Amino acid sequence: MRITQANATQMVVILYEMTLQYLADAEQAAEDAQFLEAVRKTRGCINELLNSLHREYSPATELSKLYLYCIRRLAAKAGRTALQDIRKVIAPLCDAYRQIQDQNPSGPVMNNSQTVYAGLTYGRNQLTENMADQGSNRGMLV
Is there a contact between 88 and 96 (Cβ–Cβ < 8 Å)? Predict the structure, then answer.
């Protein structure tokens, strides 16, 4: 639900948070397969951040260099030190975007998504979600 209601800046924050979570997963991985999967997901998030840059604005070049640095660190047999270096790059960017996310006046990036209303109803301490607009035309418009 958070993703369907997010504006462009909030989507960037979500991608940063996902990246940080995958880094944490990689750091805590007990097996090589888990570690490699977490690194792959981290790389996917950083690639998405890189591809979503609006190159016509000035910070895009600097952000691009930071993202490419992170991708190179992941590609070079990422170890715990590399993961910590990437965290040092991504965490401050996440904090900065978190501070400005509410200044973006644009609406949600996703249009035509299902509306979900959540609240405490019909019981003590029980969350009930009510999904409205159950039309067959949800998601992508064709």
Answer: no
40-65, pLDDT tens digit by residue?
999 999 999 999 998 898 889 999 99
- Residues 6 or more apart whose CB falls under 8 angstroms from that of 100 comprise 9
Cα-based torsion angle of the residue sequence 73, 48, 91, 17 in order, rounded to the nearest 10 degrees = -130
Where do we find the tokens 């003590």? 124
Residue 17 burial class via C-beta count within 10 angstroms: exposed 0-12, middle 13-18, buried 19 and up = middle
Residue 39 tokens, joined: 């690194």
Q: How much of the chain is in helix, strand and coil states, percent to nearest 5?
A: 60, 10, 35
Backbone angles phi, psi at 117, to 5 degrees: -110, 130
- Predicted confidence (pLDDT) per residue in 100-132, tens digit: 888 888 877 777 666 655 554 555 566 555 555
| Predicted structure pTM score | 0.76
Rounded CA separation 16/12 (Å) = 6
Other CB atoms within a 10 A radius of the CB of residue 19 amount to 26
CA angle, residues 17, 112, 41, in degrees to nearest 5: 25
